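Most newcomers find our protein records easier to grasp once they have seen one. A learned vocabulary of local backbone shapes supplies the integers on the structure line. An example says more than a description, so a record of this kind follows:
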Amino acid sequence: MKKQSSFRVMSRVVSLRCGLFAGMCLAVTYGALSSPRLFAQSQAIDGNIEGYVRALDGSNLSSAQIRVTNTQTGLKREAISDDEGYFRVQILPPGTYSVSISKDGFASQQQDGIMLAAGQAQTLRIALAVGSVATSVEVTAEMPVIETARTNAYNNIYGSREVPNIPVPGRSFLDLFVVNPIVNAPPLSTGGSGTGTPSVSFGGLGFRQMNVDGVSNNVQGGARNLVISEDALSEVQVVTNYSAEFGRQAALMLNALSKSGSNDLHMSGFLFARNKALSERPFLLSSTTPTPQFSRYNYGGTASGPLRRNKAFLFGSYERWQQDAPQVSTFGGATQSAVAAQLGIAPADIASFNGSFRAHTLTLKGDVQLNESNRLTLRYNYYRDRESPLGSGQITRQVASRFDENPQSGTLQLVTTLGANKLNEFRFLGIKRDISNGVISPLTPQITISGIGSYNGNQDGTFSSYESGYQFVDNFTWNLGNHSLKAGVELLPNSFRERTRNLNGTFTFTGLSASGTRGSVTPLQQAVNALNNVVDPSTGLPYTYTQYTRATGNEFTTSQVLAQGYFVQDDWRVNSRLKLTYGLRYELFLRPSGALNPAYPATGTIPQDMNNFAPRVALAFDPFGDGKTVLRGGYGIYYNTTVAQTFNTFRRGNGLAVRNLTVTPTQTGAPAFTTGPVSTSGAAALLPSDLYVYASEFQDPMVHSYFATVEHQLMSGQSLSLSYFGNRAKNLPYTIPSNLAVVGTAPNGGPLYGGTKNRPNAAFGNIYTANSNGYQNYNGFVAMLTQRARWGLSFQAAYNYQNVRGLSYLNGSSAFTNFGVLNTPSNPANPSQDAGPGDFSQPHRVTFTAVYDTHYSLASRRMQELVNGWTISSRIVGQSGLPFNPLTGSDNNGDLIFNDRPVGYGYNSFRLPSYIEADFRIARDFHIHDRNTIQLIGEVFNAPNRLNVTGVNRTFGSGPTANATFNTPTSAETARQFQLGIRFNR
């Protein structure tokens, strides 16, 4: 209670600073009223329609009346053109619009079919003919393929055409983020549940913000909170180099928008099925193991319509996932059966074991036009997931854990128009997520054998966590001629409660070097000898483990954080060819207090970073004034929050709340090796604990990001863009272990430490200090060819080249929870030895998505009916493999951390094999009566049945030559699977 009250005290202290900044925001906004400078950008979940009204001779038409109408919901908004003929209508929900323009002395005009997506700024160029207002011209607007009004570098959208048609094996919108051209990603998941968090990165960093309907879907900062049915979404988009309106993450923003109801009644139902007969044999399965059973079913439906025409609308969606799939164990490698027999592992716990997946999701959304000035949107989401057991690779069934979760959220958006030129948008989110990871043997320790894998139990036992949070966003917009001024605030308090990890402990076997008359002993033989109580002739004692780690003490820890953001910005339409955006954001990521151990005062302090000012500027220039070419460029500073889960590690790692033990078998009080529960009573209770503390100068990760883009329309509906992206990241975190005695020189040329012996501070074990001295440099080039639907074909083809180098320690998936804080250098005395390719470095990446509808006019009506009504779509990804570190499998420098590399090999000096994924879908529509359609669907995932490796044996060994099993595959993506589906639409 004392620690959490300290958090509240800190909140009050910071509130004064926040108040001063809010005052600054108002002052800057006021100053902007008399100065043609400042900055704004498109909204999170809405779009803008703007343009110029001219006479046929090109002269500006001021005071023209503009009315914008959503043709699906009847929403109406109005504007008046200024002296330059310019008008702007903002915060419009995505949809199809009609724009009518009228002015005395000129014939009125109406443009229909204007498609607007989230974050888009559609620019119209309108020419009115002289004549009577009663004379009206009606045209179907041809949407420009180039967004000349958008200033951020990248805003890729998959809309209502792509979302339901691009084949994604998990039927999760998260899959659509992974195939996006701008991102880098590990191999796409075509197995498992398919509803996990996408491991995507941009700019060489694993930071990303995930939003659904403009509010966060990862409030804790790491994994996604909830899953929404693909059928409940209208569009997904990936945004980079965003404006001052957005923050909390330093790289990538992933947006998804749920569907809304309209004046038309719509219903749908669907069923998708896969099974063993439609699937190839899983990769890496032992040749002696029978092909396991497999089945997967997805079914559900949607319904939407008006509660009151043009006023209130409702949308609902439900989807069920049901799967039984093999989890492939590569424990022991090619000699798995023999290894298992030596260790006494039952055949049912290796090779393959069934993993079940049962989940469902519910979405309810209401949109209400309260009156002419207020529009309200409410959404509720529920997701329930049960998976057991989950885990493939170098583990047995005892290590695999369940995954049970129950996230749910409620959101609100209120848009208020205040007169003709002022808008206010308020968004709210309340969300919670509880997770439980049960295991077969909840009390037995995990046993890890270098190069072989892990078995016997799970070090965490039954792990569980609970996170909850709220988000408040309020943005005020003031349109003044060719300026759109915006100021806003974002508050996101959240907490994370989790069970302490490693409560069961881990015995590690790394092998023994030759000693006396005894030769060297492999890790496997060391473990077998220990199991059989064989005496080591060099010591006269039974063989035992190399190292044991365990946590004891408080079972649960909770941390609270408060992310705050304040911004001012302006969207300055300098003229019809140039738009300039610039602004300033201030971020404060309020951290919890430390947990003081009087014996080590640094445990009582978690420093606050109060200097996160983030200026951003960008421009869009139409050099020829024809809307067919745009040049974009910009620069900004971005900061990244640290998740609450990371602070739990430090607050419980004070040597009192939880004691983190790292011991060798000869240490007094070290437990005897056992496959059963381990006792840490008696002398073991007095063993020194590791500590986790922050350096006093610790700062939030900061990224300088800049870009330059040229985009050109090649033909109607087709564009080519060439983009350069650069990131310079600093303050990237990692930990340095200390309290180690130097006893010599290690093989890598650094200090050789004495392990648990002769510690400078005998009261503690390793003392891990979190620093923020990491850095990373990124240079990337993206070429993208986009074809909007034309002759039934739309596609996007892209090539992404990048170079990522630095000292980042992200180490793959761990970056998504702790952002590298808990990763340590291989040489604590010289971290720069680990400078090298970034963990997300993929030099080459090619993506291709396409949707093709058949529409042919043929002389034969029967032939026409036969060839039309088909939809063919695809997603194809080819990419370089991610880099990885070769490891000796031993603690060669005595720092008690098994991250040593063989001599002569640099950081990330090896790569996984390249990856190619090709998925296809073919569907056929059959119309029933006027509005009903039955669609039959066939899909194939991993069509070439290519072995796409996701993990390899990284144990190189301590010698100059790699072990025979080094770099051999230990896990792979799913083999080829066919899926059949049926859908009903009304």
Remarks:
- The longest strand covers residues 764-790.
- The CA atoms of residues 212 and 289 lie 43 Å apart.
